[in-house]
Amino acid sequence: MFARWLQRQWFEQRRLTPALWLLLPLNWLYSLLSALNRRLAKPVRLPVPVIVVGNLIVGGAGKTPLTLWLAQQLTARGWQPGIVSRGYGRSGDGVVSVSANSRPEEVGDEPLLLARRSGVPVCVGRQRAAAGAALLAAHPEVNVVLCDDGLQHYALARDVELVVFDARGAGNGWRLPVGPLREPLGRLATVDAIIGNNLKSRFAASAPTFDMRLQPGCFYRLGDSQQTCSAESLRGRGRLHALAGIGNPARFFQTLETLGLNCENHPFPDHHRYSAADLDFAKDGILLMTEKDAVKCAGLTAGETWVLPVEAELSPALIELILEKLHGRQAA
């Protein structure tokens, strides 16, 4: 409840409320610790180029669909990418290889989704450099590493930095916990590109901004991805429930609205570890959920459950910019 209240203060008020003023000492402490973390980091450089995809704000803004798009685009152009991630929310911090059959509590929900959707090697570890080294040892054919959610992980050297924002933008523009920013907006001066996932307005930054759209696909049945249905076939079939445990659940609910589906919405915290009791509300209807939630909900509901995949759409100019930088790294 506190987390939801705090996000409302950050993204809806767009100014410092009296309650947020009380958090200013924690803001100063966070800023100091962040600066020390960056100053003391000793970046490890992998033998292949590294592309980091990350956020300045806490919570999800569309990093996973972007990482999938990058993996597809690089593969289509003859590269052999691999993916590393921390695996947020999993048990343990050690390095683990991720397969399509991995358990989400052991590898994390997003890495499991990446492994299933991308078809490229995926490895998780709190220390991304160690995860990258393990991935390259197991898959020597990999010649570029995508680091999902690693913008503030300065222990891993990087060749390309991409930062993602969604429609919420930078909120009130303050750093944690007074605002949603992990780093100040001045950090945008050092990234290679800004990706706007339905971003309403652009930032005053030298880095180019690329628009990203998340296009919904066909629903597929939880537990049987070969069984699909359209949004039209779900209309008028009874009570619809929508579940989302992502950084910005409202984004998923709005997508369903644009598809003409009138749902009872059930937001959960990002990376929530579901139990069967969490899904009791769906016994009297049809449950709709994101792919990120689906990897954790298999076997938890006996009712009719459908999963909505999304695909990122971006300008080819982004991959051309990235390839130019990758070729520069190779020449060096």
Please, could you describe this protein's structure?
- With 332 residues, this protein is an alpha/beta fold.
- The protein has 2 domains: 197 residues, 3-Layer(aba) Sandwich (Rossmann fold), CATH 3.40.50; 91 residues.
- 33% of the residues lie in helices and 22% in strands.
- The strands form 2 sheets. Strands 3-4-2-5-1-6-7-8-15 form a 9-stranded mixed sheet, sandwiched between helices. A 6-stranded mixed sheet has the order 10-9-14-13-11-12.
- Helix 6 packs across helix 10.
- It is globular and about 55 Å long.
- The model has no long low-confidence stretch (mean pLDDT 93).
**Quick one: overall form?**
globular
| Range of helix content | 25-40%
- What is the annotated CATH architecture of the largest domain? 3-Layer(aba) Sandwich
- Secondary-structure element string: HHHEHEEHHEHEEEEEEHEHEEHEEH
Tally of helical runs = 11
Largest sheet: 9 strands, mixed
CATH class of the largest domain: Alpha Beta
Draw up the topology in text.
Blueprint: H1 2-13, H2 18-21, H3 24-40, E1 50-54, H4 63-76, E2 81-85, E3 96-98, H5 104-107, H6 109-118, E4 122-124, H7 128-138, E5 144-148, E6 160-166, E7 193-197, E8 209-216, E9 219-221, E10 224-229, H8 231-234, E11 240-244, H9 249-258, E12 264-267, E13 286-290, H10 291-297, E14 305-308, E15 310-314, H11 316-331
Parallel strand pairs: 1-5, 1-6, 2-4, 2-5, 6-7, 7-8, 11-12, 11-13, 13-14
Antiparallel strand pairs: 3-4, 8-15, 9-10, 9-14
Helix pairs in contact: 4-6, 6-10
